[in-house]
Amino acid sequence: MSLLTLDHLRRCTMAVDLGASRTRVYLKQSGLLVDEPSVVAMSTRSGALIAVGTPADRMAGRTPDSIRVVRPVNGGTVVDIEMAQRMLRAMIGSRLRRSWRRRTVQRAAVCVPHDADPLARRAAWETLAGLGARRVELVDSLLTAGIGCGLPVEEPEAAMIVQCGAATTEVAVLSLGSVVAAEKVPMGGETIDRALTQYLRNTHELLLLRHAVRPLHDALARTAHQETEVHGQDVVTGRARTVRVDPERLREAVRMPVTSLLDAIRAVLHRCPPDLVADLADRGVVLTGGGALLPGLDATIRENTGMPVRVAGDPALCAVLGLGRMLEGSVRAAGARPEPEEAGEGRPEPAQDAEPAPAGAEPTPAR
Ligand SMILES: Nc1ncnc2c1ncn2[C@@H]1O[C@H](COP(=O)(O)OP(=O)(O)OP(=O)(O)O)[C@@H](O)[C@H]1O
């Protein structure tokens, strides 16, 4: 994270985190503007938007043939650019006056996964450019999450972050404003939900209702034999049925995804120089992302690594709030002089983390 990058970011007015589960938008000097499910409901006949965000999410699994529910982001990557643009435009448009909207989106910053390939970076860039952004800065979401949870990422002492998203979890060691080592596992909140749903289907022949998964999360932290009642639909008869499940069986059901996360933490530790590992023993691990709220996850990591583990405050908002802090100018670059405003002046160059504007691609005018 160079002075130049921070200088470019300070000129942005809008910070965006396009997540598989939720979309968040932070407005400079105003705070969090949008925090809504990344979901769009559209008419299959006319293609018109019917609902966006929370109301669209409520429709999922209940729609007639005339309505299609679309999730334009998958694993932190925009997979349907046009739909992501329509979703963002509707979310921002409903909260900002038209005159403000144009000015706000002109310079935007967006979080991208650490290992985002050129296509994924281009998709994030195009989504924002299509909204009218003339300049789009792409910033590593591991750094923004680290800043958002209060880690002094610009210092030489190492810190470990585990960013638990909906579809994936990223483990990283941060030092001097950059990522020293990182691993990604295809395990997230959705993977845990799928494992619990499959367990109930295979063992109890019960189909779980979409909103009945959350109580099972709480059950994961209970002691053995403290059974939990689960309501669902019988696979064979199709009728409503209730079963009682032991928390120990639920923990077994999610053991595989959790073990893959523990393996990733070990792999990252092995790749770190000994001095940084010594820092981690003192500073421990911080869990960010909505999946960090899974009851008992922090305790499991603590038991298996022997390191102190804490869940960040508002973990799901860390990435966007961290990017917001960069926009507000409250982050110092590694080894920065005290007056960062004066740095970066002079010849304008592309920011280190920014995607260069693709050749021939003019920013689309605001609609
Ligand atoms: N209280 C909770 N207990 C357990 N899991 C939770 C809780 N709250 C949110 N989650 C899970 O967190 C996940 C969403 O996290 P987050 O909002 O960080 O994801 P995202 O940024 O949209 O996704 P990604 O980073 O994968 O693109 C969901 O899968 C959700 O089930």
From TrEMBL:
Residues 351-367 have a biased composition (Low complexity). Residues 330-367 are annotated as: Disordered. Keywords: ATP-binding, Cell shape, Cytoplasm, Nucleotide-binding. Residues 338-350 have a biased composition (Basic and acidic residues). Its main location: cytoplasm. InterPro entries: ATPase_NBD, MreB, MreB_MamK-like. Pfam families: MreB_Mbl. Forms membrane-associated dynamic filaments that are essential for cell shape determination. Acts by regulating cell wall synthesis and cell elongation, and thus cell shape. A feedback loop between cell geometry and MreB localization may maintain elongated cell shape by targeting cell wall growth to regions of negative cell wall curvature. Belongs to the FtsA/MreB family. Forms polymers. PANTHER family: CELL SHAPE-DETERMINING PROTEIN MREB (PTHR42749). This is Cell shape-determining protein MreB. The gene is mreB.
